[in-house]
Every structure is written in structure tokens, then in C-alpha cells.
């Protein structure tokens, strides 16, 4: 059983076409986590579709058919073992249309690998205002991915040029610093994923690089702390109907421990009242578990709950300590990227854990100095990019959010509007649903 090793959720992020899926596929293959015959099948399939060279990407992108076949939890999650960790790899989509899935992926991760193309012009494309690299860096920081590794990929396309690697490193470092990452703790690894350079095997093409391979960098990550002492909170990511079992909700345990036979409640669920039941079975990567701990991505069944009762964004907790459903909450937010100014009455979409709920900013309480926490202005008429403010928020429909001081894992959120992330923040006070 994989429990002997610490479990790590690792999200791969980055701009579309910078080589995330290929990196994941190649590292799984080179580390012996994918059998040779499976790889050959993927190679043939890639050729047949006129996409030679995409076979490693297909390792992760075979998910579409997996989903249709109703495979339990390998959604975009792949099991991967190193000599130190039992890893669940989350391959987050890079395309801007799928950013909400990337947000869910990042909110479930303990650590991340940011894949940036070293190819001339591509790294820059990911960093410009329409690129996903900047947004992914920002969202990862907001959503609590504290440990990051940067893979500067496609080094073969730059003839393994050290100067280009350094140039990309400087640009990415600036961006990481600007959102508050401690850059001295971030490892930069030059890779050529399609060829397998510096993923598992050290590259012979870059004698100038003496740092770790990507696999070694992953192994050097710190083991995530498990907040088992906090109340149980498991945001629902999806609900499947499986023959002979019934409804199988899928999600990641954020805090606390869920055991078989536990009496649980899922809220807000049906009309915001919550539904209750008893945990019958828990499964992770096709293995039955007696209990699920923080960080475990599990599928489970609950006696008394059917598929129509619950939906993505609902949260499971123990009956004696249910998740908090808020009718209004106070948040501290930072405005990042709004085309004009934010005023009271503005109603963007809040992404909290796996929920996406439109919320109205009912009142701007005050503007504060982020460094000192001092109030700079009471009740300003508006806030703009760069401002940090305390605001009152009213969700359009019931939603679960927790206080930063109690359960920080469910207090953080990103605010999005017409295709981009405009702000981010955390819940500091709330009015519970009566």
C-alpha cells in the first residue's frame, strides 16, 4: 500500500503549448511508471492521428476517453511514485478557456511545477497580458501552492543555450517575486521534455548545468503538513453515477479525516439545506481505504445520498461540525487586473475551493496598507489595480466558505470576470446562514 510514503499533490501549470503534458508523460515513462507496451500504443496512435511527437502528451490527454468510460478518480490525476513520495499528478489545462479547471487543480495541490518554454519568444508570450504564465503564477500563490519548481523546457530548440536559460530565469524570477514567492527557494531546471533531457536522466547537452534533474527537484520538496486536527472538509469536484454503487462523489480531503461509517453532511446541497448520510466506501487510485486524510483525492459513496442531491462546489463535513454556509462575508482582497475600477454593486464570479459562485461586492469597507495592515482610507468610492481592501460580499446563492483563521484551506478565493482573474483574497469574517 502506498501509505508508507508521504502523499504529495503536484500540479503542472503553465501557458498552453509550453510542454506540460509532454513533460508529465515523459517523466512518468522515464521513471518506469508507464509500461513500454502502453507507450508503443500511444506512439502508434499519435502517428495515426498525424501527431507524431505527441505520444507523451497522450499519457495525460487520454483522459477524455477515460472520463467517458467512468473510470473513478484518474480524472486528470495520475499516480506516480518516486523513492520518496507517493505523488498524485494534476495536469492543469493551460488554455485560458479552462482556467476554472486550473484553479481547481491548483487549489488541490501541495506543490507545483511551472513549465515555461525556453524557445525564443514563447516564454515572453506566456508572460504578456494575454499569456497564461503570469496568471498561473499568481493563482498558484493565491490558492496556497507554496512550493514551486520551474522547468525551462524546449531547451533543444535553443541549441541548449545557457544564455537563453538565464534570460528566461530572470524574467520568470521577476514575476514570481512580484506575487510574493521566495525566489531563493525555487529551483530552475532546464529541460527538453520530448527528448527526456534532465527529467529523470541527466542531460549530456548542458554541461553548464550542475543542478538537480526535475525528478530530483521534485524529491527535494518538503512533505506537506496534514491538517488532520481541523474539522473534516472535503469539497466535491464531481459526482459520478456508477452501476451497482450509485452516486460516487469525487474530491480531495482538505482538512480532517473521513472514515468509513462516519455520519456526514454535504452542504449547501439541495436548496442550501444540506443532505446527510453515512460513508460506505472510500477509494483512491482503485485502492479501497478505511480512511482518507488531507491531500487524498478520493471517490467515495455515502448511504442516503443520490447524484441529484449534490453538485460540484458542495462541501462534505461531519454531521457534528458541518461546513459553514455563508449568506454574507467580509474579505480582504487585492485587485490585480481590472480594466477600470471596482465599486460597490460589482458582481463577478468567486472561485472558492471547487465552487464557482457569482457574488456581489456589497460594500468597500476600507483600503489598507498591505505591508502594515493600517487603514489608508475608510469607505472609499472605488478600488483599482494594486489596491488591497476589506470588502463585504454577498453570494448570489448559498456557498461554503470558512474563516482564514479557522480553516485557511477553504478561505482563499480568486475573483474572475470576463475571462480573466481580476482579484484574489481570503475570508476574514462571516455571517452564517440562519
Layout of secondary structure:
Blueprint: E1 7-13, H1 20-30, H2 36-48, H3 55-61, H4 63-68, E2 77-81, E3 86-91, H5 99-107, E4 111-117, H6 122-127, H7 132-142, E5 147-153, H8 162-178, E6 187-190, H9 214-219, E7 234-242, E8 246-252, E9 258-259, E10 263-267, E11 275-284, E12 287-289, E13 291-292, E14 297-303, E15 315-318, E16 325-335, E17 349-352, E18 355-368, E19 375-378, E20 388-395, E21 399-400, E22 412-417, E23 420-432
Parallel strand pairs: 1-3, 1-4, 4-5, 5-6
Antiparallel strand pairs: 2-3, 7-8, 7-15, 8-14, 9-13, 10-11, 10-15, 11-12, 11-14, 16-20, 16-21, 16-23, 17-18, 17-22, 18-19, 18-20, 22-23
Helix pairs in contact: 1-3, 2-3
Provide a brief overview of the structure.
This protein has 434 residues and is of the alpha+beta class. It contains nine helices and 23 strands.
Name the descriptors:
Elongation Factor Tu (Ef-tu), domain 3; 3 domains; Rossmann fold; 20% helix; 6-stranded antiparallel β-barrel; 6-stranded mixed β-sheet; 434 residues; alpha+beta; 9 helices; 34% strand
Reported CATH architecture of the largest domain? 3-Layer(aba) Sandwich
Mean pLDDT: 85
- Work out the strand percent: 25-35%
Widest sheet: strand ordering: 2-3-1-4-5-6
CATH domain topology of the largest domain: Rossmann fold
Overall form: globular
Relevant CATH superfamily of the largest domain: P-loop containing nucleotide triphosphate hydrolases
Q: Please, what is the oligomeric state?
A: single chain
The CATH C-level class name of the largest domain: Alpha Beta
Helix content: 10-25%
Count of helical segments?
Answer: 9
Number of strands: 23
* Estimated radius of gyration: 22 Å
Distance separating the two termini? 44 Å
Low-confidence stretches: 63-75
- Biggest sheet, open or closed, and with what strands and sense? 6 strands, mixed
Domain module count: 3
What is the SS-derived class? alpha+beta
